[in-house]
Amino acid sequence: MPITEVEKIWMNGELVPWHEAKVHVLSHALHYGSGVFEGIRAYETERGPAVWHLDAHLDRMYSSASIYFMEIPYSKAEMVQAVKETIRANGLESCYIRPIAFRGYGEMGVSPLANPVDVSIAVWPWGTYLGEDALEQGVRVKISSWRRHDQNSLPSAAKATGGYLGSILAKVDAIKSGYDEGVLLNGDGYVTEGSGENIFVVDGGTIVTPHTGHGCLAGVTRSAVMTIARDLGFPVIEQNLVRTDLYTADEVFFTGTAAEITPIREVDDRTVGAGHRGPVTKSLQDAFFAATKGDDPRYADWLTYVSD
User: Are 245 and 254 in contact (CB under 8 A)?
Assistant: First the structure.
């Protein structure tokens, strides 16, 4: 989805004009992928824009940085205020938010330790990641020939820039093959996730998702959906899934900040369930979007209001 330009981007403690948000061509992250980032959304509510799970996203960003020996030179409280400031500066009621910390210009070589850590926050209007129709009609996916990287090669607990090279291969392969998205298996053949989404199946009223220990990211939306599902009375379990579990499920859906809750209607040209959004997925979507809009008091602490 194309980026809609806005006025300002926060960079290293100050707001700068969109087209002046630049980095040096010899920045370490450009050459070696040494950065960590988050994808966050702010939703329009009756109290103005509210950021969805800001604390959880920033907690994961600091954890990702710690795994890669990066010390983010701003406190979490400063980052919270920076996110709010950037949204306010651009006058947005809802938006996508991309904070990133990366190794900048200093020395060249695999070791990043002598390079500074730069931090920026960009926001822009962004609609449904996989298309507006996808929220109801669902998307077509294929099992990718590319495998999810092993935990002892790249830690999937970290949302790191370089870790998405495998996701790029899976996404491009899916698009060039006529599908909307790819699903990656791990080295043992178990389902992990999409190129940028967690995955769930519904089987006989039970909701199942792969365990994070098998290679999927511990998604913030994944966790929220599991909580919502249990609150709605659905059993939720984490267990191994193989590709045929996706073929025979009653429903399959993606979750993620960008994807929100997107049903999957076909896997490897096999129709899933009725071939469109199923009743469990719809129930979860309804509850999810009520929470993002501040309409459900049970999840009020998941929202950080920009005006506060």
Answer: no
Q: Where do we find the tokens 């379990």? A: 237
* From 84, 159, 171, 282, active-site residue: 159
Domain boundaries, the chain: 8-124, 134-292
How far CA 273 is from CA of 61, 243, 251, in Å, comes to 36, 15, 6
Distance CA 268, CA 112 (A): 41
Q: What is the mean pLDDT of residues 151-176?
A: 95
Token pair of 97, please? Answer: 């938010």
Q: Closest Cα to residue 258, out of 133, 75, 117, 97?
A: 97
| CATH numeric code, 134-292 | 3.20.10.10
pLDDT band at 127 (very low <50, low <70, confident <90, very high): confident
Q: What is the pTM of this model?
A: 0.95
Q: Where are the beta strands (DSSP E) in 66-138?
A: 95-103, 117-124
**Cα–Cα distance list, 306 to 6, 43, 90, 101, 303 (Å):** 17, 10, 12, 22, 9
What value does the mean pLDDT of the chain take? 96
Nearest residue to 239 (alpha-carbon basis) of 285, 281, 192, 301? 192
Name the CATH code of domain 8-124 (choices 3.30.470.10, 3.30.530.20, 3.40.1180.10, 3.40.50.1000): 3.30.470.10
pLDDT digits (tens, 9 = 90+) for 190-229: 999 999 999 999 999 999 999 998 899 999 999 999 999 9
Please tell me the predicted confidence (pLDDT) of residue 130: 64
* pLDDT computed for residue 2 by the predictor: 81
Name the nearest CA neighbour of 90 among 6, 16, 21: 6
Rounded to 10 degrees, the C-alpha dihedral 265/266/271/274 comes to 0
**Whether 142 is catalytic:** no
Tally Cβ neighbours within 10 Å of residue 231: 12
Q: At what angle do helices 220-231 and 54-67 cross, to 10 degrees?
A: 140
What does the longest C-alpha to C-alpha distance in the chain come to? 56
